[in-house]
Design goal:
Belongs to the methyltransferase superfamily. HEN1 family. With 453 residues, the protein is α/β, with parallel strands linked by helices. The protein has two domains: 2-187, c-terminal autoproteolytic domain of nucleoporin nup98; 254-448, 3-Layer(aba) Sandwich (Rossmann fold), CATH 3.40.50. It contains 15 helices and 14 strands. A seven-stranded antiparallel beta sheet has the order 2-3-4-1-5-7-6. Strands 10-9-8-11-12-14-13 form a seven-stranded mixed beta sheet, sandwiched between helices. α14 links the parallel β11 and β12. The protein is globular.
Length: 453
């Protein structure tokens, strides 16, 4: 999956400053569905091209519901630009999307000649033109034909855009309109997608003649979300947490509330040496390192790719020695005993257990609660009862979840583990609770019993 961005502004190599990616290097980033690479096939004074190449790992793709058995492998996802490419773009060009450039701030605020090429995009030439032309782009969209023996055109087009725009505006146009043209997001669409749409559409979406179509497709045809987004656009006001009168209440994302709940639990138990078990790409580790009260932080995961991503996220190679000495990343499987995990004040399993096959869960319990035996263990997991509040969600919240428990099932598991390994346990909800279904996330705080301590 490929996208290129070219400028003839002189010196053209200043594009590297705007994208915050050096033209003389190949930059690689782990993303949920594979690896994104940024490279420069040409970098001269009079012309510079940056290419975003997304290498899809088929095994990470979520198969479509009711699809055939091999749909995970047989599809157009690795080739046709879509929300997968838009997500990668947001990941690797985060600063550029905001229009931020420490080295060339004036250039970042200036319209420069740009050319964009998307070789394979699902859509029609007419729709591509309707979406991009009102934004100041000259559009050439050429249908991609089938093989000669079949004849006719496929549902894909080869798209070239040209115009004078800010790089930030160009990237935000792509971030919104690639999934709109594809008309199918690769992840479940939650209310916080409204905020992303309005943020990326600031300054252009409200006046776009196709804003209704854009809102509906970007928000996966969820009518309530599209209606809210369009109302906000009509009112010309930002989506903020304080706007209680809005149809969708703005609040901190659940992932953020979950991290805050974990940090509060760590403070409650007075932990200073902490394990983040199943740390993934380092979302929680980033919050932990900001707590000066934590003297030792260890992130553990079975995936070397995730650990590399966590190291980049933490910027371990740039940290001062004093800070770097507080943090370690280790590869280990949580279902096996590992002496390196012993002796810590607390361990966190944040959204981890539901990714483990149920028959393997006793092995994790023995390794963490029995062998590593930290003073406290914090476990969070989805509350499956709350899933009825997610419009359009069928099955589990993530394609890799092996199970999702009710509150009663989670409580029964937690009490059994506590009794077997000499802990006490308290259970609480995370996120806004419903009177009937409870909170979206459930958290168990285990503490070593004073009798066994």
């Amino acid at each position: 999956m490929l996208l290129t961005l070219t400028t003839t502004h002189r010196p053209a190599t200043d594009l590297g400053y705007l994208l915050v990616k050096h033209p003389g290097k190949v930059h690689s980033f782990d993303v949920p569905t594979g690896t994104a690479h940024v490279l420069y096939p040409e970098a001269e004074e009079d012309r510079c091209t940056a290419a975003l190449l997304l290498d899809i790992d088929p095994q990470r793709l979520r198969a479509q519901r009711d699809a055939f058995e091999l749909s995970q492998y047989v599809n157009d996802r690795p080739y046709a630009a879509s929300s997968l490419l838009a997500s990668a773009l947001a990941r690797v060009f985060r600063s550029a999307l905001r229009g931020a450039s420490r080295d060339r701030p004036e250039l970042a605020a200036t319209s420069i000649p740009l050319e964009i090429h998307v070789p394979v995009l699902r859509g029609t030439p007419e729709l591509v033109s309707r979406l991009f032309t009102p934004l100041g782009w000259q559009v050439t969209a050429t249908p991609i034909p089938f093989e000669a023996e079949l004849g006719g055109d496929s549902r894909y087009v080869d798209v070239h855009l040209s115009g004078e725009l800010r790089v930030a505006d160009a990237l935000n146009h792509l971030y919104v309109l690639l999934p709109v043209l594809d008309d199918g997001k690769h992840y479940w669409v939650a209310p916080d997608e409204i905020e992303k749409l309005l943020r990326s559409g600031e300054g252009w979406l409200a006046a776009h003649p196709e804003k209704v179509l854009i809102a509906r497709r970007y928000l996966a045809h969820r009518r309530s979300l599209a209606t809210t987004a369009l109302q906000l656009l009509e009112a010309d006001q930002p989506a903020t947490e304080e706007e209680a009168e809005l149809p969708v209440t703005r609040r901190a994302p659940l992932a953020e509330q979950r991290r805050e709940a974990v940090l509060a639990a760590l403070t409650e138990v007075g932990a200073s040496r902490v394990l983040d078990l199943g740390c993934g790409g380092g979302a929680l580790l980033t919050a932990l390192v900001k707590d000066r009260g934590l003297t030792e932080i260890v992130g553990a995961d079975v995936s070397t790719r995730s650990l590399e991503q966590a190291a980049r996220r933490l910027r371990l190679d740039r940290l001062p020695e004093r800070q770097k000495d507080r943090i370690r990343l280790i590869q280990t499987a949580l279902t096996y005993r590992d002496d390196r995990l012993r002796g810590f004040d607390a361990a966190v399993l944040m959204e981890v257990i539901e990714h483990i096959d149920l028959p393997r869960l006793p092995a994790l319990e023995a390794a963490v609660f029995g062998h590593a035996r930290p003073g406290a263990v914090i476990v969070t997991t989805p509350n499956v009862e709350y899933n009825v509040h997610y419009d359009g969600l069928t099955g589990m919240r993530h394609s890799d979840h092996r199970f999702e428990w009710t509150r009663a099932e989670f409580a029964a598991w937690a009490e059994s583990v506590a009794a077997a390994h000499g802990y006490t346990v308290t259970i609480r909800g995370v996120g806004e609770a419903d009177e009937v279904t409870g909170a979206p996330t459930q958290l168990a705080l285990f503490k070593i019993s004073e009798v066994t301590a």
